[in-house]
Amino acid sequence: MATCKVGSAEATAFLGLGANIGDPLAQLRWAVRELDRHPAVRVVATASLYGSKPVGVTDQPDFLNTVVEVRTSLSPLDLLRNALDLERRAGRVRQRRWGPRPLDIDLLWYDGRVIRQEPELIVPHPRLAERAFVLVPWAEIAPGTVVPGLGTVAELCEAVEREGVWLDRPRPWVAEEGPAGPASPAGPAGPLAPGEGDRR
Fold first, then answer.
1. Does the annotation count 106 as an active-site position?
2. If pLDDT is split at 50, 70 and 90, which confidence band does 38 have?
3. What local confidence, expressed as pLDDT, does residue 9 receive?
4. Mind giving me the DSSP string for 116-131?
5. Is residue 137 part of a domain?
6. Residue 179, in any domain of the structure
7. Residue 147 lies in a domain
8. Which residue in 9, 63, 85, 173 is a FRET match for 93, CA 20 to 30 A apart?
9. E strand or H helix at 15
10. Which of 29, 33, 42, 104 is catalytic?
């Protein structure tokens, strides 16, 4: 009997990923694969990689950023906690707000819902409309997504200041060979490219 990876009560969610210390490219590849390995999460689209200048604290390296679309049977809070666990496994220690990090994963949007479980969970992400490094990759894979109270991702992307954001590596990039991520066995990347078959 064929089985599905996640249950029938699936939600769509978008996650923003970034990194700027260690090996950001390897860490982002690892993070996308690890998201997709979770039995209740399926990565269905991955944007290109974009470079960006740091925000808030500028005396640190430039970032690599992307956005992934997932289908999941996890609740919003459980999806966020899974993301935070990946950050921890990648070696992130929260010492300074907006400081350098080996991996950062934000829950941007969950099934069009407005969620306020402060301080742990606020959806849509409260600062997404100000962040070109989120909106530019997001518009690449899902421009028509409606952010409650703000408009579509395409509209927000048109309105945001894009200076300091540039294309670093176009899709596909997850399945390219390269160094292993922080919790992956060493060796070349396998054939799996979660989310990169969706070219919307």
1. yes
2. very high
3. 82
4. EETTTEEES-TTGGG-
5. no
6. no
7. no
8. 173
9. strand 11-19
10. 104
| 36 carries an active-site annotation | no
- The catalytic residue among 106, 131, 168, 171 is 106
- Give tens-digit pLDDT for 50-87: 999 988 777 789 999 999 999 999 999 999 999 999 99
Q: Kindly give the interhelix angle for 24-37 and 76-89, rounded to the nearest 10 degrees.
A: 140
Whole-prediction pTM value? 0.83
How many domains does the chain fold into? 1
Query: Of the listed 42, 101, 131, 171, which one is catalytic?
Result: 101
CATH number of the domain at 63, please. Answer: 3.30.70.560
Residue pair 188/40 in contact (Cβ under 8 Å)? The answer is no
122 is written with which tokens? 């606020």
Q: Report the distance separating Cα 145 and Cα 36, nearest Å.
A: 21
The residue from 29, 33, 92, 131 that is catalytic is 92
Say how far apart CA 175 and CA 59 lie, in whole Å. 32
pLDDT confidence band for 142 (50 / 70 / 90): very high
Query: Is 104 part of the annotated catalytic residue set?
Result: yes
Which band of pLDDT confidence, cut at 50, 70 and 90, is reported for residue 176?
A: low
Mean confidence (pLDDT) of the chain: 84
